[in-house]
Write a structure and sequence with these properties.
The protein is globular and about 40 Å long. It has about 90 residues and is an alpha+beta fold. The protein has three helices and three strands.
Length: about 90
């Protein structure tokens, strides 16, 4: 199955999925890649070839990717890679 180009409709689909199913990851992107360590809430607004746009505590923040995304599959791989690269928080005992 071919990957979809990053159209506005595909961006909306990615954002809806991330906000509904991976809200903690979106907040982690804001805290780490956005440099907003005290962020309390974050929503993904858009995913484009060059950057993702988040709303963080009511302010729009752009987080640039390390390469231009080619399609929806590239967006998926890149978002997963970015999340896996984050430092792991210590687990409570």
């Amino acid at each position: 199955m071919a990957a979809d180009p990053l159209t506005p409709a595909v961006s909306d689909r990615i954002c809806q999925h991330m906000n509904a199913d991976h809200a903690a990851a979106v907040l982690a992107y804001a805290r780490h890649y956005g440099g907003l360590s005290a962020a309390g809430s974050a929503r993904m607004l858009a995913v484009g070839p060059e950057a993702m746009r988040l709303e963080v505590d009511g302010t729009t923040v752009e987080i640039r990717f390390d390469h231009a995304l080619q399609d929806s599959e590239d967006a998926h791989r890149t978002l997963v890679t970015m999340l896996r690269a984050l430092p792991q928080e210590p687990q409570a005992s």
